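Reading a protein record of the kind used here takes only a little practice. The integers have meaning only within a learned vocabulary of local backbone shapes. With that in mind, consider the following protein and its fold in token form:
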Amino acid sequence: MNPKTAPYKAEEALSRLWLAQQDVFREDPSEDAPILISTEAVNRVMKAWEHSGLGIVAAERAERLLRWMEEDVQGTHAAHLPVRPNYQSYAAVISSFSKAAIYESTQPCQAQVVTNSRGRVKQTMISQSTRTGFECAKRSEETLMEMQREHERRAIEDGAYTDELQPDTALFHHVLRGWSEIKGGTKASATRAMRILDLMQELHHHQSQSESWQGLRFCKILPNLTTYKYVIKAWTSAMHTPEGPDRAEEILRHMLSMSSAGNAADISPDLHCFHMVMSAHGELVRKKRARSDDGVPSVERARKVTALLEWLDLLSMRNSKLQLTAETLRITMYAWVYSHHVDAPEEVEHILSRLIRTDSAKTEDYNTLINVCSFARGVGVGVLDEDDIDALVQKQMAHLHLYGIAEHALHSLLSSSTARADSATFSGILRACTNLLPDTDERDAKVLELFRLAYQTEPCDHAVAKATSPERKQSPTGGGCVDANVLRQLRKSLPTTEAYIKAREKFESYRLLRADAEQ
């Protein structure tokens, strides 16, 4: 019932069984003496360690039992003692170290950073927990290689093929999972995963051509869709190299070409494969590492995500399993959001329109477009000479166009049947009005108009409000979609304190009347 204490109790019971076996051998030294201990009994204890969740401690205890089974048992009865490691024995150790790699890499550890002379972070060092996870994944791989060598040795000794210790695809997947799911993975871990894939392909080819396998219906080692998914994940998780998303995309394209060529296994990529690669490009854009590490501008990463989206859209016409989802569109949307490029508002608007057509648009999607526009002031516009009237007019027109996109998103949200405006919506549109419209009386009037619309708009229900805006619970009763953030942005948008106080007075009068009516 308790996986933390079960392996200790199981190993203690095994020790008592081993002592009893020795007593039996002392009383009856013949080969007919009863056998109390077996490989299956030891394997059960190793399984208990595998499922204990104790990380490297459990893996090393399971490995210790494997070594005990491998070593020569001293004494007269070693020859007929049936304790010999089999497939399950090695599988338990391989899986234990694979799980330990993931577990140990997620343990809290203070990050080590290298700073420059100004105290800024220059490089983030690999944490000790990641190093421990790397070592566990390495030992999992080494155990697999040891199992393969032992299998080959037994085949030579027996003079005929036997699959008793033949590693199969499942064991290779254990090792791949360790390399691919290490938190803070590196280029080294992704490269090791690629080596495992190459080895699987080599062994599969050998099995297909070997005479020993001619009478069998299938090969025990055959890379499949899960295999390639692990390798893609290894590259997308390689946090310390900017080439990870590109290598993952290469594997994705290789899978499509292989599946089109009629590969023996069905390795046609599914939607999850595309999502992993697209998210990897988007994450690199978010961290703004692309330009500094490999010279690729963030906008190029966002365009790669869009290209994958369009490619997936074409494939969906022939494959029903590759239909676009709301998640696919949102991954593309946020890649453009984090690019901070001049084209971002129009790209996000295009994606939002697709979400609206499929009735998948949420309040957060509309708010994202409004915020992209509100923070796009000056994006893509160089330093202008104040005397250059044509340049100033061109910049002003660009800002008016951005505000038009944001205002259209607001009206679409207010008329939507699947989403409702919240306080974040009006906080964003007030910011867009302030940042994008010329500082005139018309802008002040527009700010007051938007503020009135905010407190006259019915807020989301409690469940939606809690999900979309945690601060919505602080809104005053009868205040519509107005909360502290909206009031703070209103103060920044109005030119004088007097104008702000006057707007607040009208708001409070409306709120009190509405609160009394609700009671």
In short: The first helix runs from residue 6 to 27. DSSP finds 21 helices and two strands in the chain. The first strand starts at residue 113 and ends at 115. The radius of gyration is 32 Å.
